[in-house]
Amino acid sequence: RAMETGEYDIADQEKSRLENKQRATRRKREQGELATWKPRWFAKAYDEDTGESYWRFSSEYWTDREVAADKVRDSQAATSDGDDAGKAGSGKHTASIDYWSNVEDIF
What we know:
By secondary structure, this protein is mainly alpha-helical.
C-alpha cells in the first residue's frame, strides 16, 4: 500500500522485512527445523496433451475461506462489551491469521 501512496522508503523497508523473513524461513526448512513446504490449495498436475506440468487449483480454498469467515463472524458476535475492534468500518483488522487453520503466517 505504501507504494500506492508514494511512501517509497516505507515500501522499501517492508519489502526488505518480508524478503528477510522468507529467507529465514527457507533456511529453517533447509536445516530441518521446519517441515517441507507443500502447496495447500494447489497440486502439481500434467497436461494430457503436452505433458507439461502445471499447478491445478483445488477447491479446498473456498471451504477453508468459509470456515475462516465463520470464525470472524463468531468473534464479532461475541464482542458484546461495546468494543468496536474487528467490526466492519472500525479500521481494525479482523482477518487475522488466527482464523485460518494450518496456514503459515507469511507477513
